[in-house]
Amino acid sequence: MDYIKGTIVTTIGEIDGVEALLMDMGIDSLEINDPRDIEDLLNKKNDYDWDYIDPKVMAQSGEEPSISFYLSDDEEGRKKACEVEKICAEKGFHCETGVVSDSEWKDKWKEYFKPAHITDRIVVKPTWEPYAKKEGELVIEIDPGAAFGTGTHPTTTGCITLLEKYLKPGMSVLDVGCGSGILAIAAGLLGAGDVLGIEIDPVAVEIGRENVELNRLSGRVKVCCGDLTKGVDYKADIVVANLMADLVKMLTGDVARHIKKGGIYISSGILLELKEELCDFIEVCGFEIIDVYENENDGGWCAIAARLK
To answer: Reduced to 3 DSSP states, what percent helix, strand and coil does the chain have, rounded to the nearest 5?
Structure first.
């Protein structure tokens, strides 16, 4: 589908006024690039807002503010685009408009998602890519859709590596914040007898369920919408949580109530500089640290395995 995209380069002092002007014209499909947002991000209001900021985001802090707007590629849309260009010329703002196709970007990311070995034994394969399975390999078919999780991030590698090490056939597994279902599916392929993935995002839940069906694991792996802290009545031999450090801290107390005595808690999304802090916190919550997976070549992340005392 074609549509009109316009971009207005403005100033910090004028950005709110330009936004209001576009809204008054009935243009409400907007993308606002305000460098002040980067400052707000750095001065995070909550401990769990972020652990890591991509350098590409940091680079945006020095850019001029701009507003992009989107219109239908029809007579009305073209008329409005001309009106905006005229107003911008009068106010001295630079404005560029053009017709673009969503086919140029909608599936562009798929070009970079290829079959990948997560461990020596486990391969993650996008549904649209061919792959010749080798003897002994376990292949996870995945279509992440709008959910987080292609399985190629080092935090996922850490979780799956520890799952592969500690999961015994027939064990039960609880995947907290399961996203596209990668870890729940990996647990099922590794021989777990019963797996429950919980996720607060309803869209991710649907995608997770579809991925479970793709891997023919619906009989043993279930994905549901839920919050570990509210109304989840399930105890597992292994709980896995690939989140981020502050969310791991927020949930670890509840994890202890959802894991069997002597069970294993695998957590990830933890930067190496936070490893000691997280290990100490997990131990305070009644666990004994038994293993730490880390790989400094993969961006400095680690995963922690702990046993409930």
So the answer is: 35, 30, 35
Domain with 287 in it: what CATH number?
3.40.50.150
Range of the domain at 263: 110-308
Phi, psi values for residue 19, rounded to 5°: -60, -45
Backbone angles phi, psi at 145, to 5 degrees: 50, -130
Which residue in this structure is represented by tokens 């391969």? Answer: 123
Q: Strand pairing partners for 274?
A: none
Q: Using the structure block, give the residue that is written with the tokens 């599916």.
A: 185
Sign for the CA dihedral angle at 113, 118, 120, 123 comes to: negative
Residues 178 and 201 in one domain: yes
Range list of β-strands (E), 169-230: 172-176, 194-199, 221-225
Which tens digits make up the pLDDT trace of 216-258?
A: 999 999 999 988 888 788 999 999 999 888 889 999 999 999 9
Q: Report pLDDT digits (tens) over 80-137.
A: 999 999 999 988 889 999 988 766 656 666 776 788 888 989 999 988 889 999 999 9
Q: How far is CA 46 from the centre of its chain?
A: 18
Residues 197 and 238 in one domain: yes
274's CB contacts (< 8 A; 6+ apart) are 51, 245
**DSSP assignment, residue 25?**
T
Q: Are 153 and 270 in contact (CB under 8 A)?
A: no
Phi, psi values for residue 176, rounded to 5°: -90, 120
Q: Are 9 and 34 in contact (CB under 8 A)?
A: no
